[in-house]
Amino acid sequence: MMTNKTALIVGASGIVGSNLAHELLTTGWTVYGLARRPPQHILGLHPVAADLLDPTSLEVALTDVNPTHVFITTWMRQDTETENIRVNGALVRNILAALSPKKTVQHVALVTGLKHYLGPFEAYAKGGTLPATPFREEQPRLAIDNFYYAQEDEVYAAAARDGFSWSIHRPHTIIGKAVGNLMNMGTTLAVYANICKETGQPFQWPGSEAQWNGLSDVTDARIIAKQLAWAATTPAARNEAFNIVNGDYFRWSWLWPRLAAWFGVEARGFDGTVHPLEVQMAGSEATWQALAERHQLAVSELSQLASPWHTDLDLGRPLEVMTDMTKSRKLGFYEYQPTEDSFFDLFAQLRQDRLIP
């Protein structure tokens, strides 16, 4: 049993990072949270402000930080996959290089996602043969450039150099609270539902027929936090990659009306046409600002809450997406989260925190 568990969460202000901070703090860890603007509201978290692309900034910020475990939960979106590889590979390389001289790191966990199987945004589930589902960790890398692969390779290289163990975690769409997040389906749908209610428009399904009728799954931010903590402290989980989803499957044709009912709006399903949220929500900034002023919401900028581009990518896929959890189950990770509750818990939290009416 480890008696001194000191975590450095890289990306502590994001959906995964903030939930992981809560998980580790409640189980006795010392936790440092690194970000450009680290959260100040998480009780017990030691904030560390640094620029991941500036090695000098990292070296100075980490002078007195000696983690036993590093959790990399962030990335920086670029215009092309070539730039994604350059920037996000450097992000991982820089943080591990800054920590290397300390010789304190025992384990590094990297959060990537299902683009490992589906391909990067530029070629998202397009062309050629679609990957087989449910996705399993032993499936080989695609023969295409992918910044997730570059990040993994940086972890492997640093592990070979410094002797720490590692784990890779591949969630599906993550459902949880974060403001200003690049990939935030749950909050995006909550904002969209409130705009529909305000304007009297139906809660129109935005995606493909395959997603509407097919099976799917998602990842609650709380359950990936639990898997990250489990893998970091379980010897059998060392040097392995793990899928992580809630553990149930659903069809959007079943879930969509339930989400609409929570907000009291009319649900409309797939009608033969894709209706992207980027189109449906275009020009809604003034509507949201008016809602924010009337209800005294904490955030009045629509772009800080909603990421319709990413929700469109997820819900517009030409195939159903399911993720196999057998590998971690066999090693003893048994956590489970009903997906309906993931959304409803998030909506209630967003309302309590005055992020939605």
From TrEMBL:
All copies of domain PRISE-like Rossmann-fold, residue ranges: 61-357
Alphabetized InterPro entries for the sequence: NAD(P)-bd_dom_sf, PRISE-like_Rossmann-fold
CDD domains: 5beta-POR_like_SDR_a
Protein name as catalogued: SDR family oxidoreductase
Taxonomy of the source species: Bacteria, Pseudomonadati, Bacteroidota, Cytophagia, Cytophagales
